[in-house]
């Protein structure tokens, strides 16, 4: 069964054109099952592009999913029409009393900003604490993964002079963990970030398991033993051209970015990028939905608060 999204959401046409089954709300209402409730806190500037990327991954499952898009503030995004935000996004205050089976918090293009310098950091920490009480399992991507590690465990990322950017090979360190069920022992995934957390810091977090790691990019996937928190430091949702578009954008504004590693044949930006992470990215999100959300969430979400283990907050 597919994801259920609003009938007029632009992503509907894109997904249909790719032969991805996304059910409209009216059709889903005719089915007598409880769909999963999944929220997406979208912090990326191009909301529509990120919506398509994440919905594509969420669609590869037999589960029916209701998706709520959540915004962190009232500021009109630079690359997304305000009318789109008003039509398809919820203010956090509107859904604060709701409980979710799953929540995805995206990365954010915050470059060299320290957390306390982020204009919405207070709201971000409030949402992180709320998720511990209202969400069965939360998937943190890229910047959000580092932000959550800092908020809950007090581990501050190192800001690098050179961006970790490219497609890197990773090794599965925990082959019996359900999150990577079906993965090859070695797989590729894209990264695009300035932040870095040393593996020793990840290893010192109690109750956290490092599941996949790269020699070049560091820890890629880690998860809490209770399956409530999943940290992914890269971008499994990225499309084939996303890193290329980032490289061209940074080049056009005079930032002189390094060529993304292991991305273009012969590291030549004139060549068509090699896409070799899509299958594993899709499988990662499908496994999260099935084993960390669907298999663990209570049928009655009102029971979630009593079962939820709240992690120690250190900030």
Automatic annotation (TrEMBL):
- Mind telling me which residues the site (Important for acyl-CoA specificity) is annotated on? 111
Q: In which pathway does it act?
A: Amino-acid biosynthesis; L-methionine biosynthesis via de novo pathway; O-succinyl-L-homoserine from L-homoserine: step 1/1
What Pfam families does the record tag this protein with? HTS (PF04204)
Which residues does this entry assign to the site Important for substrate specificity?
A: 192
Q: Which Gene3D superfamilies match?
A: 3.40.50.880
Catalysis performed (reactions) = L-homoserine + succinyl-CoA = O-succinyl-L-homoserine + CoA
Query: Which amino acid positions bind substrate, per UniProt?
Result: 163, 192, 249
Listed GO MF terms = homoserine O-succinyltransferase activity
The record's principal subcellular location, in a coarse class, is cytoplasm
Coiled coil: which residue ranges? none
Catalytic activity, EC: 2.3.1.46
Matching entries from CDD domains are given as:
GATase1_HTS
Active site positions, chain numbering? 142, 235, 237
Class in the EC hierarchy, top level: transferase
Q: Where in the cell is it found?
A: Cytoplasm
Q: Which UniProt keywords apply?
A: Acyltransferase, Amino-acid biosynthesis, Cytoplasm, Methionine biosynthesis, Transferase
| NCBIfam families per the UniProt record, alphabetical | metA
Write out the function statement from the record: Transfers a succinyl group from succinyl-CoA to L-homoserine, forming succinyl-L-homoserine.
PANTHER family to which the protein is assigned, alphabetical: HOMOSERINE O-SUCCINYLTRANSFERASE (PTHR20919:SF0)
What HAMAP family does the database record attribute to this sequence?
Answer: MetA_acyltransf
This chain belongs to the protein called Homoserine O-succinyltransferase
What is the source species?
Alteromonas aquimaris
């Amino acid at each position: 069964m597919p994801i259920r999204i609003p009938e007029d959401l632009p992503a509907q046409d894109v997904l249909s054109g790719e032969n991805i089954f996304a059910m409209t709300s009216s059709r889903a209402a005719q089915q007598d099952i409880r769909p999963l409730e999944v929220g997406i806190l979208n912090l990326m500037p191009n909301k529509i592009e990120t919506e398509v990327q994440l919905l594509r991954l969420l669609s590869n499952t037999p589960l029916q999913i209701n998706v709520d898009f959540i915004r962190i503030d009232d500021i009109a995004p630079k690359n997304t029409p305000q009318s789109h935000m008003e039509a398809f996004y919820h203010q956090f205050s509107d859904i604060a009393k709701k409980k979710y089976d799953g929540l995805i918090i995206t990365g954010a293009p915050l470059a060299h900003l320290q957390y306390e310098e982020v204009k919405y950091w207070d709201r971000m920490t409030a949402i992180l604490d709320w998720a511990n009480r209202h969400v069965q399992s939360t998937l943190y991507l890229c910047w959000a993964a580092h932000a959550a590690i800092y908020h809950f465990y007090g581990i501050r990322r190192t800001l690098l002079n050179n961006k970790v950017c490219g497609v890197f090979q990773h090794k599965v360190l925990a082959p019996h963990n359900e999150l990577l069920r079906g993965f090859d022992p070695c797989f590729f995934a894209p990264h695009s970030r300035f932040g870095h957390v040393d593996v020793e810091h990840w290893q010192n977090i109690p109750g956290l398991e490092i599941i996949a790691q790269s020699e070049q990019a560091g820890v890629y996937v880690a998860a809490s033993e209770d399956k409530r928190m999943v940290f992914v430091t890269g971008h499994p949702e990225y499309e084939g051209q996303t890193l290329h578009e980032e490289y061209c954008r940074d080049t056009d504004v005079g930032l002189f970015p390094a060529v993304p590693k292991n991305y273009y044949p012969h590291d030549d930006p004139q060549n068509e990028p090699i896409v070799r992470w899509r299958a594993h990215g899709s499988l990662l999100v499908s496994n999260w939905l099935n084993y960390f959300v669907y298999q663990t969430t209570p049928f009655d979400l009102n029971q979630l608060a009593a079962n939820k283990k709240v992690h120690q907050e250190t900030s």
